[in-house]
Every structure is written in structure tokens, then in C-alpha cells.
Design goal:
CATH architecture: Up-down Bundle
Shape: globular
Largest sheet: none
Mean pLDDT: 79
Number of strands: 0
Number of helices: 14
Number of domains: 1
């Protein structure tokens, strides 16, 4: 019987075997991973991601004033970014020379954890952009989406992210076809890396388009409202809007673009070897998006800021948290007042957008 066409699989090899096959020099990469400055930067980034997103998640859970569709999506984003922070610490601490001791199953688990977390975070950003676009275009303070639909949307985000993260374990890898191995992720097939990069770039494109449409809509709205408001006030509102949208899109694109382009080049088999040396820094840049997300999403929301103060007061003064929340909520203005929801409609649109991310 002719066995020449039977593929040879390398399930029992260590991850080091595939890294050597791809031409990766782990000794050179180890110099970055073991430098004191890089280690401190990784530790601070990971801990900050976990702390800030944990704080946002806690605020949403304990404050009933935040139990609205947008905040449920924001809470899910905090969960995904929390997972990013944990997986970022795990994958970075087990990189470099440590990779030589990792089995294929351990490598797939480590990489699948970060891939699932990042994909869930990215898709959740798109879900928030869709929710904000719907809310603003219908001139509503809160989305009309029911809690059931929000839950289904959140579940769908996680199911898709988990399926994408588990695809290599279920067979979309190069263990039986060494010629198709990726260079950035040596146990993954280039077709998988290419698919992930294209899908992620598509999601990024959709997010950019949605926020651009929001910006154009409000700019046109401001022109119609000019005759009802002062010119300086209208101009200042539009300028503030542009600054916020630029901050939203700027951080998003800046953090994600280098990594997605690297994966795209790898999938096309055109990745420069010099880029592989700085792969860890590119991953850190992506993780930084999970660091800035809780800041950008909550810095203009007075209810969230008030809840943050209550949490800190609880730790600092050792008083019961419910007493603090009751005090602040009784003395705070109505939620619509926090947003500046005025009759001209434009201020409501602007402040709602300011919370969009």
C-alpha cells in the first residue's frame, strides 16, 4: 500500500520546533522580554488593564442607574478587556525562551486565550458603535433595544470569538502541513492568519464608517440648528464633537492597525523578518487599546464617575458602599441632566456621542 500521500503530523513536537522552522530567533527576542524596562512596562500595562476594567465592571454592577443597554455593552467590553489584560500577562510571561518548553497544546491554549479575548473586544467595539449610531440617529437618550436583544448580542459576540479562538485547535493549523505555517504565529496556518486579519480589518472599517456617519449626521444637524443657537456655540459644539470622534478613532486605529497589517502581511507570506523582532511591542500596543477603552468610555459620564468615587470612598473610609451610593444618587441630577439633554436636540446628540466610546 502506497503511503506517500499520507500527511506527516507533528503533534508531539514542542513549539520550539515550529519556531525554528519559521526562522524565528528566540534568543534575540529574549533580550526584549527579559529587559527590566520591558518587564516593568508589561506588568504596569497588564495590571492597569485589569484594575481599570474591573473598576468599570464593578460600577455598572452596583449602580442601578447604569442598567441600560449601552452600559450592558460597556460592561461586556470591560469583561473582554479584563480577559485581554490577564491573557496579555500570561502570553508575555511565557514568551521568549520559555516558548522552547511549551508543548503544542499549551501553546494553542495560550494563544487561543489572547486571540479569543482580543476578538471579543474588537467585536464588542463594533456592537457599541452600532448601538450608538442607532441611538443618535433616532435622537434617543438610551437605545430602544430590549435587554433580551442586548443579551443575545453579547452571547453572539462571545460565541463568535470563542469559535475563532478554537479554530486552530479544531484543525485549522499547520501541524500536518509545515509549508503553510505562519511566521508570526508558527503553529497557525497562514490561511487562518489571513482570514483573521481580513475579518478584523473589516470590523475596524465598519467601526470607522459608523463613527464617521455619526460625525457627519451631527455636523449637518448643527447647520440646521445654527439659526436657533449662537454661531460660537454651534461652532464650539461641532469642534468638541470632532475632537471626541478623533480621540475615539485615533486610539482605536493606532492600537490595532500595526498588528492587523503584520498579520495580513504574514498571511500573504510577505512579512519582513525585522518586524518579527518587535512583535511583542505590537502586541503591547493592541493591549493598550484595552487600557484606554475604560477611560474614553467613562470620562464624561457623571454617573460612572460618581460611582467610582463611592467605590474609592468605601475603601478609604471603610463605610458601607450602599450608604455612599444612596447619598450621591439622591443629590445628583437626573441622568438626562448629566448628558445635557436640551430641547434643541443637538446638545443631546453631542453628549450622547461623547459617551459613545
Amino acid at each position: 500500500m502506497d503511503n506517500t500521500n499520507v500527511p506527516v503530523c507533528y503533534y508531539n513536537q514542542t513549539a520550539m520546533f515550529f519556531y525554528n522552522l519559521s526562522g524565528r530567533d528566540l534568543i534575540v527576542e529574549e533580550q526584549h522580554y527579559r529587559s527590566v524596562g520591558f518587564f516593568i512596562g508589561v506588568l504596569l500595562t497588564g495590571v492597569s488593564i485589569i484594575f481599570l476594567n474591573g473598576l468599570v465592571l464593578t460600577a455598572i454592577v452596583i449602580n442601578r442607574r447604569l442598567h441600560y443597554p449601552f452600559y450592558y455593552l460597556l460592561g461586556n467590553l470591560a469583561v473582554t478587556d479584563l480577559c485581554v489584560g490577564i491573557s496579555y500577562l500570561v502570553i508575555t510571561c511565557l514568551s521568549g525562551v520559555w516558548t522552547s518548553t511549551v508543548s503544542t497544546s499549551q501553546w494553542f491554549f495560550r494563544q487561543g486565550l489572547i486571540d479569543t479575548s482580543l476578538m471579543a473586544s474588537l467585536m464588542n467595539l463594533m456592537a457599541i458603535a452600532l448601538e450608538r449610531q442607532q441611538t443618535i440617529f433616532t435622537m434617543q437618550l438610551h437605545s430602544k433595544m430590549t435587554n433580551q436583544r442586548i443579551i443575545l448580542l453579547i452571547v453572539a459576540v462571545w460565541i463568535m470569538a470563542i469559535l475563532i479562538g478554537l479554530s486552530p485547535v479544531m484543525g485549522w493549523n499547520c501541524l500536518c502541513d509545515l509549508s503553510s505555517c505562519s511566521e508570526t504565529l508558527p503553529l497557525f496556518s497562514r490561511s487562518y492568519v489571513l482570514t483573521i486579519s481580513i475579518l478584523s480589518l473589516l470590523i475596524m472599517f465598519i467601526v470607522v464608517i459608523l463613527y464617521t456617519c455619526i460625525c457627519v449626521y451631527v455636523w449637518k444637524k448643527s447647520r440646521r440648528m445654527t439659526e436657533h443657537t449662537s454661531r460660537d456655540q454651534s461652532k464650539g459644539t461641532v469642534v468638541s464633537l470632532m475632537n471626541t470622534v478623533l480621540l475615539i478613532l485615533g486610539c482605536f486605529v493606532l492600537c490595532w492597525t500595526p498588528a492587523l497589517l503584520l498579520l495580513l502581511l504574514d498571511g500573504l507570506h510577505h512579512v519582513p523578518q525585522k518586524l518579527l523582532v518587535v512583535e511583542s511591542f505590537i502586541l503591547t500596543l493592541v493591549a493598550c487599546n484595552s487600557l484606554v477603552n475604560p477611560i474614553i468610555y467613562t470620562y464624561r459620564d457623571q454617573d460612572v464617575r460618581t460611582t467610582f468615587k463611592c467605590i474609592f470612598c468605601c475603601f478609604c473610609q471603610q463605610q458601607h458602599l450602599s450608604n455612599h451610593l444612596g447619598y450621591h444618587c439622591n443629590t445628583s441630577q437626573h441622568f438626562s441632566d448629566h448628558l445635557g439633554y436640551h430641547s434643541n436636540g443637538l446638545a443631546a446628540t453631542w453628549d450622547t456621542i461623547a459617551m459613545a466610546k
